[in-house]
Each structure stands twice: as structure tokens, then as C-alpha cells.
What does this fold into?
Amino acid sequence: MKTLLLNLALLVSFSTVYSQSFCSKARTIQCGEVINSSNFESGNTLNVSSYGSCVSGINTAVNNFNGNDVVYRVDALNNSSITVTLNGLSSDLDVFIFKSCSSGASCIAKSTNGNSSSEIVNISNASGTYYIVIDGYNTSQRSTFNLTVKCAGDTGGGIGDGFNCSSAEEISCGRTYYHNNFSSGNRMEYENYETCVSGVNRSLNPFNGNDRLYKINVSWAMHSTFL
It folds into this structure.
């Protein structure tokens, strides 16, 4: 009886560990952005039981996905398409896509190429938030990587992806922020700015450089100055 109870307790504990939410682990990546990172110190949150039908046909005895995993979230425009590319690998890392990060969330897409091959996932008719999980099939799979997310959708003519308000970074009055646009990606181009670029030479100023989106809440009748 003691042995039976011990085995039951271990089973319950194991199940709880791998059905937990991974929301707190998710970092934000914006459409058009390239992130250079690694899974060296990211720890393990998801394993083979987390991926459901996405690991159908895979030898799960060998590929139990208990390696370190990294999670990103991206917000997509309605009826858009998303392309997720993972490359620059020195070990075998795979990509899994979720629509939720809560306990019991289901994997909806994957790319599980062998060795250090690049991984690419395409999602059509995208809408809302997606979670990108980068995982090693065992504990030895650790690597630096380049993660790229490209989006295309209904942005009024298809020139530039346009911005998603939910991805805006919030700033406050009276504060100074030190940021850069080195890897922020390009979402807005000349056509997106309409009358604001009237009289500007489009050939010389296509506005196809990296951009960042901010939002600020201003009280009624307040005077604001942006430097």
C-alpha cells in the first residue's frame, strides 16, 4: 500500500509540472523583428506531453523535449499571415506554436527538422496573440539562435505591415527613455503616413527603416511637447 501511494503521488506531481502555464516565460517579439538569443540558461517548462498532436509520429522515447525552452509572444493583425523562422543553430532546436499560454494550451503548428537545420512555420488567417516555443528535444540541445517573425495582412493596400496598437510601448509624462531601433523591424512605410508626408520626396525618403510604436495617456487640455 505504501508503494502504491508513493507512485500515485509521483504521478500527480509529474503531471502538474508539465501542465503549468508558461505565460510568465513569454517575451514579446514584434512583426518584422529579429531576435538573437539562446536557450543556454532558460530552464525547462514544457516537455513532450505539452505538445499533443504536434509530436504525432515523433519517437517520444528519444525525443522527450526536456531541454531548455524559450517562449515569445507576437500580436498579429486580423486576417494576416505570419512566418516564423529560426536559424543560426548549432544544436537541434524545434519550434512549436500555441494560441494560448495557459495550463492545458494546445499546440497548433510546429517545425521539427533534424540536427541544426533551420525551422520555418507559416500561419495563415492569423488573428490575435500567438506564442512561439523554442525547445530542445533533450537536455543536450542548447544553442544560440536567430528568431525572425514576419507578418503580412490587410493594412490598406499591403504597403508595410502597419502597426498593431496592442504592441505599443507605454510611456509616461515627465520621464526620459533611452531606447533604440536596432532590431525593432519595419512596420510603417511612406504610404502609411498619408498626408503627414505630403511634399516629401518618396524616392529619397521611403521610410522603410526600423520603427518603434509608443503610446501615452494625456489628460484633457494638457499641453504636451515631444523632443
